[in-house]
## 1
Amino acid sequence: MYTSELKKGVNLHIFSTDKFQSITMCILLRLPLKRETSTANALLASAFMQGCAEYKTRRHIERRLEDIQSVLSFNILKKGEEHIIQLFVRTLPEYFDKAAELAGDILLRPLFNNEEACRRELEATISSLVNDKRRYAFEKCIENMCENEAYGISGDGYIHDINSASLHMHYNYVMQNAKTDIMIVGNINEHKAEECIRHSIPLEGTDASFEPCNYLYYPPSIKEITEEMDITQGKLCVGLRLNTDPSGDDWYKAVVANELFGGGASSALFNKVREEDSLCYYITSKLLRFKSIMVIEAGIDSKNRDKVLDIIMSAMQNVSDEGIENAKKSITDSCKIAEDKPESIMDSFLGSLIAGRAMTLGETAEKISNVGDIDGVFDDCHIDTVFMLSGGGEAQ
């Protein structure tokens, strides 16, 4: 991996490989996650594609992309307590210079045509969350769990803030305050790529710096929230504070422990709650590294809530090293598979940057391989929030 500081606060990371026929690039405008700017960030991400100095409308941009056989899009990411506007580009090696020129024009000379359409699109996106009941329950669990922390802020924004956001003013704020990382994956010469980026995307530097997420938290009591909805399958989310340093070696023990506990079809939770007791339709656990949080998700009949909670706690207290080698192999195999996707390479590296320990997927796999036991992972673990999206009847 090649890394270069283009300007203060603007870093370039190149993963040179002949594994892929195309070149993938993402430009990440990283900002602190704040309630007062989350909606404007999300709106801005959808507005960039409406036009730029050289290509006045979305249709003109799309025609140019067809000409240079490239794909370009904007997304909004919530990573830890950062809110990130992502410009994503995929192109062929022979068109990289032209794709970079287009990306620079869109990013640095936007026109923000058709603002009202962008506002309607964002409102529809926010409103649609309730249609995905599993994701809705997960987001509500995090919102309640971290209600006094930046991590509890919605990355999609808030409907009642949409019309008050000024795109032009907020664009200036973002470009003056965002810390920027540019990542490129593909068969490309690092120095030629750097020269191209310096010429085509001349971003101004910034003194932006972020405090790392506070991962230590001891809940004074368990929050228990139940929300009723006309659904046939209840959704249970249990949020726990692990209090494990996400930048330390113990984090990799936590990753292995999660795999043994609820990370796969051979995990303790799956075998007990689903296979033995038939109390759920699905059950899994996942780690949110930046806040050192574990979230357990289960699809259950609402009447079985307390039984499932009891089994979860019992399983956590009794999880053992049995099967650790298989768990480690499953994780390292996933790392190897992820290396076959440019998006996964960049996403993993970004996550490690935010966690405070920049690492490639290969380095992560090595850390996992070196885990010898999971002793102590759950010693300082505390249930924070139990969120139940409750409905009646049997699942379809």
Note: The domain at 223-390 is CATH 3.30.830.10 (Cytochrome Bc1 Complex; Chain A, domain 1).
## 2
Amino acid sequence: MNLAKKKDRYIVGLDIGTHKICAIVAEITEEGRLDVIGIGQAESKGLRKGVVINLEATVESIKRVVEEAELMAGVEIGSAYVGIAGTHIRGFNSRGVIAVSSRNRLIEREDVRRAIEAAKAVSIPMDREILHVLPQEFVVDDQDGIGDPTGMTGTRLEVNVHVITCSSTACQNTITCVNRAGLEVTDTVLTQLAAAEACLTPDEKELGVALVDVGGGTTDLAIFEKGSLWHTGVLQVGGEHFTNDVAVALRTPVNEAEKIKKKHGCALTSMVPDEDSIEVPSVGGRKPRIMARQVLGDVVQARAEEVCQMIFNEIRRAGFDRSLNSGVVLTGGGGILEGMPEIAEQIFDMPVRRGTPSGIGGLVDVVASPVYSTAVGLVLYGYRNRAGRGIAASRPAATGTFGKVTGRLMGWLSDFF
């Protein structure tokens, strides 16, 4: 019994990305705080654009990461919250309407559950499954903007939800990899939702904000307004495109291009001093060359402008280009690139900031980087969704509820999905 209780004190977030796999172990303290006690990280070898293409390589990477995290934390890891990403993710808004069933017209939990079920009842292709159903707001007899209608009186209850679906096979392959590495999957979570947990403030979500997570293979977008999620999108560009551009333009091997990009890259050429120069290794055993850093800046800036333009087009297509009053939060590995927020501000014409994980204690200085946003967010998500849920390994499509939907609603909604 004591052992089970002890195990409950630890929450693990596993972020399986295109370029790196990262595990974070957090402990729930006596005061109910979350402290990071272990981190494991390894290069990811078996993924492309967030989707598993080589099972064995991915399993090996996960095993390495888990061992490293266990060693650092000094605890055994048995289960984890796992991030799901990739271009197969689709999000759409749906609406459910029901008549309140009780005689005295009192809205009960069962009515809320039925309303959400009605909103979920949309036809999706056979090869897809629902990952999350996130309530945005409830409407009771034309009174909208209600966070939790339980206990209110009304005859008609409506709910607006954001439904996120994913490819069943892509999701299942990710779960299989984690299981083969010896872990149980407590829950699967959309990566940009997790990153939003770690990087966004409640005020930003209320006023309207776009979270842009620039990863290795994809760029993920999540738009929040009035405290709820309204739009999700995935773009097929990421950090590896910057690296490939640098490799081709400077005629240098890809792994060297990655190092040069990280060390000297800048997305806004005007920020680079004229006299700066860099050493560029050549291919085929030729001598390394000395080059102006401005040349590298030109290459990186061209790609940064293109990525920002694609993101802005997606925001405009979703109809939120005028309502993001808090602006844009950039996170993920691509968000670290020098000059990225500045060029994004120019293209979006709204405030842009870098998003670093917050809301946790422990090894904060180690995880205080946009690279760890998703992993930290998975831990926070797990902590927030602990109430009222057992291990849902057999039901990977469990939902989480964010935003306006209050803590009380959150606790029992988890029973339904």
Note: The first strand starts at residue 10 and ends at 16.
